[in-house]
Amino acid sequence: MKNYLAMYLGNPKSSKAWDNLTEEERQQRLEQGMAAWGGWMEKHSDILVAEGGPLGKTKRIDASGVSDTSNDMTGYVIVKAENHEAAAKLFESHPHFSIFPGDCVEVMECMPMPTP
Fold first, then answer.
1. What rounded mean pLDDT belongs to the chain?
2. Domains in the chain and their CATH numbers?
3. pTM of the model
């Protein structure tokens, strides 16, 4: 089994449909989404390496110093799977984009640190 980082992605344009919901519809969708997400986490609890969570504001650090920036990353989780394809299939129809206004989930292998 290998570890895979799953990044939840979404951008402000994706949430426009969410913003157009009434407060009641939004609350209903939120409750439905959180229940589905909790169910996904429970179903896959045996392969969760890190439960992850939502991500906040972003800072960029480079040779010029520190600056504010933004990206489409909204959250993450780390899972175990036999291979990349199996890890990706875990996220088919995930609540992040099937209920909430997220765009997608990207999955990448957590590679071992090279040794000299």
1. 94
2. 2-58+68-109 (3.30.70.1060)
3. 0.89
